[in-house]
Write a structure and sequence with these properties.
Blueprint (H helix, E strand, L loop, with lengths): L2 E4 L8 E9 L11 H15 L5 E3 L4 E4 L9 H11 L5 E4 L2 H4 L3 H13 L3 E4 L9 H34 L12 E3 L5 E3 L4 H11 L4 H10 L7 E2 L5 E2 L6 H9 L6 E4 L2 E4 L8 H14 L23 E5 L7 E5 L7
Parallel strand pairs: 2-3, 2-4, 2-5, 5-6
Antiparallel strand pairs: 1-6, 7-8, 9-10, 11-12, 13-14
GO molecular function, one term: DNA strand exchange activity
Organism: Sphingomonas ginkgonis
Pfam families: Recombinase (PF07508), Resolvase (PF00239)
Length: 334
């Protein structure tokens, strides 16, 4: 019951096997036996059963606890790929394919890395062999459904956040600059920072962004300071163009958010008017630099359904080749 990808093993005394495990959340990682341990035990047993094929488990651990399969930016995965590129791993063993990645595109990129360094990939609990065309078709179908499931989960999370905001509640994390979170999750105005938000929107209509940022830095205004559950201090950094741009792009300050292509009013006290936010939003897109690269020939001339210029984003997770996309105002990637 295995899925196997890659080239023939090298003529070494043993096939060096690395077990990779992953869990999407940190919940339960403090228990005596975790999901990572269970995955490792299954993979360990399978490697032992292949002793006649000279398989030997490497002593190193590659465990990513609390990391999503939607990205390749994972420390244990990065260490594994480094060891593969250094020629220290012949075979990667996982419990299921989605432990390695939930993205079809990322999987193809990982397999490319494996093949370039004569490494092989095995999924213990899935019954197909990708050495032939039919097996590769089945593999692609499985990964497509895994990616579809992840996108459905993302949609549910976004819908939940929008529903909470509609009732004046914050979904969690760091609140937007200019707001505080009361016990119970309700967003309220931060009397110290809210006037600065209104000032930024007002001044941006007549002042270049660089001048605004320089003024904020000279006044010693910083990002919000906060402390994580682990006791580490974060924030308190000088304001940058990216920080100010994020504030100006956030429609929550006008009492609205965009969901499924429509603007929804939320029960959050606005810091600016809806008209002011629209004026600034239009200015931001008019002032955006128009320097399209040869492979982004539509940058600067492509607009969404509301007549607003679409931006470009680049995704380069892990060891992947950079991919460019066009992104609409509702966050939809084209």
């Amino acid at each position: 019951m295995i899925a196997m990808v890659g080239r023939a093993f090298p003529s070494a005394p043993f096939v060096r096997c690395a077990i990779y495990t992953r869990k999407s959340t940190e919940r339960g990682l403090d228990q005596a036996v975790t999901s990572l341990d269970l995955q490792r035990e299954v993979c360990h047993s399978y490697i032992k059963s292949q002793a006649h094929r000279r398989w030997r488990e490497l002593p190193g651990r590659y465990d990513d606890g609390g990391y999503s399969g939607s990205t390749l930016a994972r420390p244990a995965l990065a260490a594994l790929l480094t060891d593969i590129e250094a020629g220290r791993v012949d075979l990667v063993v996982v419990y299921k394919i989605d432990r390695l990645t939930r993205s079809l595109l990322d999987f193809v990129r990982l397999i490319d890395v494996f093949e370039r360094h004569d490494a092989t990939f095995v999924s213990v609990t899935q019954n197909f062999d990708t050495s032939d065309s039919l097996g590769r078709l089945i593999l692609n179908i499985l990964l497509t459904f895994a990616q579809f499931e992840r996108e459905l989960m993302s949609d549910r999370v976004r819908d939940k956040k929008a529903a909470l905001l509609k009732n004046g509640l914050f979904a969690g994390g760091l609140p937007p600059f200019g707001y505080l979170v009361e016990p119970g999750g309700r967003l309220v105005i931060d009397p110290e920072r809210a006037p600065l938000v209104a000032e930024l929107f007002e001044r941006y209509e007549i002042t270049p962004l660089r001048e605004l940022v320089r003024d904020l830095q000279q006044r010693g205004i910083t990002t919000r300071r906060w402390r994580s559950k682990s006791g580490l201090d974060h924030g308190g950094q000088p304001m940058t163009a990216a920080t100010v741009g994020k504030i100006l792009a956030n429609s929550i300050y006008s009492g609205r958010v965009r969901r499924h292509g429509e603007w929804v009013e939320i029960n959050v006290p606005p810091l600016i008017s809806w008209e002011a936010w629209n004026r600034v939003d239009l200015l931001r897109h008019q002032r955006a630099p128009n320097r399209p690269s040869p492979d982004r020939f539509l940058a600067g001339i492509l607009y969404d359904e509301l007549g607003r210029r679409m931006g470009t984003v680049t995704a380069a997770p892990g060891y992947a080749v950079k991919e460019g996309y066009y992104k609409g105002q509702d966050g939809t990637v084209r």
